[in-house]
């Protein structure tokens, strides 16, 4: 049996570490819609984006055509510190579930940031330094992105200024200290440091913040500080591009053993890990070479795909960013405090939004207590303590495996295990104490937010 030859962990050698990122947009017939200038409604040009982003990253952002983009040696060497990441055959979980399904997961938690975010952080910091910049600003929610960026900036000698969503700043003091260990300066957001922060605080006194607010602050700071640019850890096309290393490695490892997944599952916050994992497989589907089922998993508390609108919206609450066409809950939507951490963004990657809209991908939403049940079940048999975000994917992978148990189908399931949950023990504690609740926004709340979507000339906002 071929299956018996497959090891628990499929490792690739350093030689096999990918040399190029794969740009899935090159294979999309319907390209993702361009970013628009909110003042004029015209597509953002290279020059429009220059005050905020570094030049090479803008080129990557706007490049819908180049299929393979070389990974510079310095980035590839940094990757070698923690990559190639293992692809694990979840034999123990399969046995525990009693399923005929074969389950694989790609583990991205093997670095200090505890997530896949380092894959893009090092790339973005590299291009910033290459341009001779002195620093970057960013936002962080749960803290993984801020940590990843701090690590990358420390390595390359760049300043790093992080606006951290206030409730996370208070709930996760150790995350903050990790960032400071790597030399970053960390400010709780909204803050009085920026004009937009002061405005948000005046309108919503006592707010514990959101990613959308923190983005506005970070963008303002970058645009007003010489030698600085802004970087973002998810949503953007360039981030999906860098994260394609996850999928390229996973596919290389599976190909070695002739394994072809039937279902590929990932959690979706802004879409970067899911987009990265599925990219090379999606490329095959788009080119008509092979069919796969792709499933995005999002929290029921922040259901951008399953209950959002496909419309142009602001990427941030302060409305200083360009407009992106994406599945969105509205940039005014501030999700209730919950433990989905990095999955609380109001919008979704324009690439994944277009693919979902065109029927290439499915999406489901799951409630957080069921997510933590899956997290615990997984930790007890596979050993790894998963991040709450990643556990959304675990939940649906288990559900699909249990479905196979009923039907007797021997499906092959691949999911992204994006990170570890060591900084999420308050959430685990709430779950264990039976104090976790499943907040789901009402239709009325969402409608109120949709009503405030920006009006873009020539665009029907209720697609
Ligand atoms: C940030 C994060 C996510 C969600 O972000 P995406 O851009 O949707 O991938 C998922 N898992 C972990 C561990 C994260 O840190």
Bound molecule types? pyridoxal-5'-phosphate
CATH architecture field of the largest domain: 3-Layer(aba) Sandwich
- Please describe the biggest sheet, giving its number of strands, its sense, and whether it closes into a barrel: 7 strands, mixed
Number of DSSP E strands: 15
Give the strand order, joined by hyphens, for the main sheet. Answer: 1-4-5-15-10-11-14
CATH topology of the largest domain: Rossmann fold
CATH class of the largest domain: Alpha Beta
Mean pLDDT: 94
What is the terminal-to-terminal distance? 49 Å
- Figure out the total of helices: 19
Structural class, by secondary structure, is: alpha/beta
| Strand proportion | 15-25%
Number of domains: 2
Give the overall silhouette: globular
Outline the structure in words.
The protein is of the alpha/beta class. It has two domains: 7-17 and 79-114 and 243-450, Rossmann fold; 36-53 and 117-230, Rossmann fold, CATH 3.40.50. It is built from 19 helices and 15 strands. Strands 1-4-5-15-10-11-14 form a seven-stranded mixed β-sheet, sandwiched between helices. Strands 8-7-6-9 form a four-stranded parallel β-sheet, with helices on both faces. A hairpin with an 8-residue loop joins strand 12 and strand 13. Helix 7 packs parallel to helix 9 (173-181) and helix 12 (237-256) packs across helix 13 (272-286). The protein is globular and about 60 Å long. Bound molecules: pyridoxal-5'-phosphate. Pyridoxal-5'-phosphate is lined by residues 115, 117, 144-145, 234, 267-274, 342-343, 387, 389-390, 418-419.
């Amino acid at each position: 049996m071929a299956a018996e030859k497959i090891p628990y962990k499929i490792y690739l050698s350093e030689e096999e570490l990918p040399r190029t990122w794969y740009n899935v947009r090159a294979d999309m017939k319907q390209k993702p819609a361009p970013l628009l200038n909110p003042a004029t409604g015209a597509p953002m040009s290279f020059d429009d984006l220059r005050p905020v982003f570094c030049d090479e990253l803008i080129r990557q952002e706007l490049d819908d055509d180049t299929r393979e983009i070389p990974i510079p040696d310095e980035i590839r060497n940094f990757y070698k510190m923690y990559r190639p990441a293992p692809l694990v055959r979840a034999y123990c979980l399969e046995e525990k579930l009693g399923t005929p399904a074969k389950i694989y997961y790609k583990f991205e938690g093997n670095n200090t940031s505890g997530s896949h975010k380092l894959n893009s952080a090092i790339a973005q910091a590299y291009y910033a330094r290459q341009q001779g910049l002195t620093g970057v600003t960013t936002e962080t929610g749960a803290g993984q992105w801020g940590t990843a960026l701090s690590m990358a900036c420390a390595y390359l000698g760049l300043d790093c200024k992080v606006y951290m969503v206030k409730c996370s700043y208070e709930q996760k003091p150790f995350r903050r200290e990790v960032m400071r260990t790597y030399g970053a300066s960390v400010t709780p957001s909204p803050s009085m440091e920026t004009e937009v922060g002061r405005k948000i605080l005046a309108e919503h006194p006592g707010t514990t913040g959101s990613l959308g607010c923190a983005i506005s602050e970070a963008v303002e700071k970058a645009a007003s500080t010489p030698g600085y640019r802004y970087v973002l850890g998810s949503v953007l096309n360039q981030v999906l591009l860098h994260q394609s290393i996850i999928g390229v490695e996973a596919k290389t490892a599976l190909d070695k053993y002739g394994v072809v997944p039937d279902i590929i599952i990932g959690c979706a916050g802004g879409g970067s890990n899911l987009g990265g994992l599925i990219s090379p497989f999606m490329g095959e589907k788009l080119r008509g070479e092979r069919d796969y089922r792709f499933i995005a998993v999002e929290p029921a508390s922040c259901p951008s795909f399953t209950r959002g609108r496909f419309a142009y919206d602001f990427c941030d609450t302060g409305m200083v960013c360009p407009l992106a066409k994406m599945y969105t809950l509205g940039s005014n939507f501030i999700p209730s405090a919950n433990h989905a951490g990095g999955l609380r963004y109001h919008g979704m990657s324009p690439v994944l939004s277009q693919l979902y809209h065109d029927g290439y991908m499915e999406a489901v939403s799951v409630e957080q207590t069921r997510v933590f049940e899956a997290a615990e079940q997984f930790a007890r048999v596979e050993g790894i303590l998963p991040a709450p975000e990643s556990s959304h994917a675990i939940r649906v992978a288990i559900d699909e495996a249990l479905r196979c148990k009923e039907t007797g189908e021997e499906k092959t399931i691949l999911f992204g295990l994006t990170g570890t949950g060591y900084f999420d023990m308050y959430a685990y504690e709430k779950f264990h104490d039976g104090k976790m609740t499943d907040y789901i926004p009402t239709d009325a709340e969402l409608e109120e937010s949709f009503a405030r979507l920006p009006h873009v000339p020539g665009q029907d906002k209720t697609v």
